[in-house]
Protein 1
Amino acid sequence: MSKKEVERYMKYNYPISFKIEDGDYFVWFEDLPGCWADGKTMEEAIANLELVKRDWIELALERGIKIPEPDELSRYSGKLLLRLPKDLHKKLVLAAKMNKTSINTYIISLLSSALSSAISQKTEIGKKDLGDLLEDNKSTFSTESEIGNEPSDYDYKYKISPKEYSEYIKGVEIEQIKYESGSFKIQNEDILNENSSVKIKYKRNAELVEILENSFTVKDKLSFSVIEKTSRKHIIDIKCSIIVNYKHPNGINEEIFEVFKNYNVPVNTWPYFREFVSSSITRMGLPPFTLPAWHTVK
């Protein structure tokens, strides 16, 4: 990666998309997936986006990821030969005169308005359909984690007994919970129709990142996907990593952690992930959606 390469891509004028939520401005480049920023004003949001753009380009170049170039307007001349019925031509001329403008300007204003309306309507219909599909499939999304009271529930999976584990968790305290990273994207909306059916898929994987004498740190990687059943294409992908710092007089070992990561970690991280999924869904322009609470059956 060279500074010259970075500056070359920085000079490209990528189209910017934006939306306003609760008074905040959210802006992003459609051509650069995951490159977005926000701000209290449009100017602040765009300034922040330029900083993110530089980081995005540098990282892409370092990893050898192909950076798309913006659509070149130069391929379009701006001239269009259009044949009209004589009566429609006459109506356009009269309407332009009534609006005290040229027929060319009047036609451009009509086309711009109609095109914006058509695009907006198509987008809103797609968003509504996807929102309905999400809500319809929420009940099939299970977050239950079962933990038995009898040793027989453990024998074949864990090396620590329920009694030993119950004694251990009495000494566990949460020191800090924080987001490490997150991402979200929506794609393939065009394949959805009134007959579409989706599957909601959830994954999580907790790992120990640090063990000290009286404390330990866990990273929980969570993902939420909405998949169209027929094509198996992903419509929504949301990922999030959450760091939890725990305190315990005896730290933790691998045998205890095998149980801890399945039954205690999700109870702590799931509320944060629910909030991240909910806010991400909203930022995508979809109707409000909230995941069910995590249930641990004892």
Note: Helices lie at 3-10, 42-62, 86-98, 103-137, 162-169, 254-263, 265-283.
Protein 2
Amino acid sequence: MTSGSGYEKINRVKAKLRNPMSIKQLAEALNCSERTMFRHIEIIMAENCGLHKIKAEGETRYVIQTEEAANFNQDIVKKLEKLKKTFSESNPADVKNRKVVDKIIDMLSTTDPDEFKAEAVTLDPNYILDYGPFCDNHIVDSMVNKVLKAIRDGFKIRINYKYSARAEESDEIVVSPVKVIMRMDTLYLIAADDTYEETQVFKNYMFENIVSLNVTNESVRPMHFDPAIHYQYAFGKYTDTSKPQDVSLLIGPESKWLQTQFAKSSFHPQASLRMDKNKNMIVDLKIRITPDFKTWLLGVSPNVKILKPESLKADVVKMLKDALASMQAK
């Protein structure tokens, strides 16, 4: 099993046992031997936490299923109820405190751990992250929370996904979620599909194109995800498998703001920067030439000179000519 204290390991097993699973399935899901898993099951059985053995498809499976739904915060709630009785109904301060305690009790009084919902973290009401008019700020929180919970618990998810926003039909696919990432104003589910074993490539799924989502009871094998590798050779959103190319750009001293932007950049691999005798910055990149990179070059074209490759320079020149012709058309 992956590293962690004995308490953490037992909790990971318990998280899996919200759905019926065999010893073999648990051992595979948590990367340990079946003998080790038997020991964990014995510990959980001794806790009297509602662990049951059931027969399914000819094998023994285990599931945590209490006879009566437990109140997971009942001790704290009881203490708060006692505290409420000490407040005077004639004292304005006590009346106010009573209302506060009532709210806390309401938040803690749940009989289902799934009812706990992760709220968006706000550092400060005056600190606002605004990614502009085209960002995915309309994403449904419950969908994101379902994915995050599936990642924590280690289960696959079934999504109905439109590969294009204009597509009329959606495809149903089962994937192993690993991360939720905001990249270039767009929120992505990063997951492994059924091609991962062969390609070792994670796929990007835009949340705005997910029509529906459900968590399965199929476990996910532990997988290592490194954002630096996932976004290697990427300029922005696109993480395709096209061959990266050597790109060189020249940024003149009159565009100090752009030189500063590259000095602070975080490409993977990192951009190589050097200054020539005329204070021009030469930027060397190993990057995939994707549509968003070309569009960015088009936007900063007065401030950037493309030194190589010639094919990229030709593409941007054509884009400029097409844009000019479109604007001049009557």
Note: Residues 6-64 form a domain with the Arc Repressor Mutant, subunit A fold (CATH 1.10.10.10).
Protein 3
Amino acid sequence: MMLSYKYILLLAALLPTTVLGSTFISTTVKESRATGVSFSVDSKFLQDERRIDLYLPEKYEDSTRNYPIVVVLDSNYLFDLTVSILKNRWRRDLAPQSIVVGIQARDANERFGFASPVQRIHGEGVIFEQSKPDKMDDFIQKELLPYIDAEYRTQHHRTIIGMSPTATNVVYDYLKKQPYFNAHIALAADFLATPSFNGSPYSLVFDLSNSQSDKGFIFFSLASDDVLKEPDRGTPFQIMSKDTYANKGIHTFIAPKTEHYQQAGISLERAFSLLYPIDLWRPDYASLWSEDSNPLDYLKNFYSELDKQYQMQTYPLLEGYWTRNSIVGTVALMNERKNYKAALALLQWTNSLLSDNQTVLTLLTEQAIIVGDRELANQYLNALSQVVVKQGSNSSEDLKRLKTKINAFKPNEQR
């Protein structure tokens, strides 16, 4: 009995894996959950077992691209919310498709046990005094993410999200001389606390105001209800709303009409809109609607600059809810204007980024037929056939349809 390519990939993902000397053993088969899958790992750093949630982007098995990673602490509460927001934003070309890795906590003690010890400015004792943030740090950086990097196609652009006590873990990484993560999102953050791990007698505001300007992105949120209960908590947010902080990549937000946990949804939306602002992340497709536009040159330059900005490989949106605001929509517009060869060149560039993509190869085959190049059409059809077999998809009717169109081609139909 022959196993399909997809089945082999799935089977491999379920097997115990050894990475950098650490053995990760799924205590149970990966279980489906509302979003993605869930499995357990043994950690030598935590000296315990941890439940991990994992989301792979849509059509991950059918692509060859590499994806940035988003690590979610407080996964019990934040994982599904984070995945939902990222999926909606990606479909609107407002964020990259990402692999999301969630770390669960079995109870409050486990959640607090790996937070960063902090000292409240008002003179209370050290909170989470017995906690071990360095252990969680080691688990993430030396066990969990090396495993994810080895098992899945990843990019070294990483975001970490925490809330309330686990927001301190986010700050813990950011204040290092060389943070491990590129972007940090600290929800329900407490600025009246001093991170005792850095030995500073000053507030977190002081630490951040004196931080380097090239440490990446960090976002802090707070619920309006928390400010009502403790007005002093809102003062640092007002101080840090100045452009001098934003210019360093430090952003704050008080979520209106929300309580401590409820603010997570609106705050995550705000954080991702700042991390991937629409005027920077999404191409100005409207500028390509004019007759004299050159979509290929514009998009190549746009994504080249975006790669430099985020220090990762970025990809154009192939299809989207806004028909014209995508590669497929732009190709359709170019064909309406009879710019057939320019549309073919745009698809060829897209194929160089999204190789083994059935939609792109189908469009390339059809476009080669449109421009009257039978040999090229057959090349793309053969490539499509190989991908269909490799991915185990049922596209035989599409292949027959394309073959019929190629066979019906007449030499005088060149455009």
Note: Confidence is low (pLDDT under 50) at residues 1-27, 196-202.
